[in-house]
Amino acid sequence: RGAGMKFAKRLQKELYEEWHDHYVDYKQMKKILKKDMPEVMNVFHDSLETQIIKVLFFMRRQQEALTSELWSLESHTVGDAALETHALELGRHCELLVQKLENFKNYAELNLTAVRKIVKKFDKHFGMQFQEIFRTPPATS
After folding, report:
1. 118-135 pLDDT per residue, tens
2. Is the pLDDT of residue 60 over 50?
3. With contact defined as beta carbons under 8 Å apart, do 11 and 102 qualify?
4. pLDDT, tens digit, for every residue of 61-97?
């Protein structure tokens, strides 16, 4: 029980505040596990699926925005004259882009950990494997 609290606190501490609503709602998922109702497994499954879809859509939007910024950055470095004229601006733009990429990486890692930990809690709570009960189709790219 203590380890779960530690992760919930870590998640709150490390999340990127601007994206707060786009993270897996770990606390909500823990609350669902504690509910005393016959359909709790299905409610948990449906909620987890909703959370994962929310994260994937947000990640896709962020990835598109980052890709667009990278292309924009590349167009600024085409000529030597443009590079010399905008060197300071370009440096700031690069620093900002690196920060955005780090935020994106941390977002992905925190959500992956949240899903892994909440599924582990499910397994422990019900004494069975989540993936055994809810067969997940293989990922396609």
Report:
1. 999 999 999 988 988 887
2. yes
3. no
4. 999 999 998 888 766 555 555 556 667 777 888 899 9
126 vs 128: CA distance, rounded Å: 5
Between the alpha carbon of residue 11 and those of residues 5, 67, 108, 115, the distances in Å are 10, 26, 12, 12
CB neighbour class for 29 (10 Å; exposed up to 12, middle 13-18, buried from 19): buried
CA 93 and chain centroid, separation: 24
Return the C-alpha torsion angle 69, 75, 76, 81, nearest 10. Answer: 180
CB atoms within 10 A of CB 137: 5
Q: Which two tokens stand for residue 37?
A: 């109702």
Say if residue 13 is exposed, middle or buried (CB neighbours under 10 Å; 0-12, 13-18, 19+): exposed
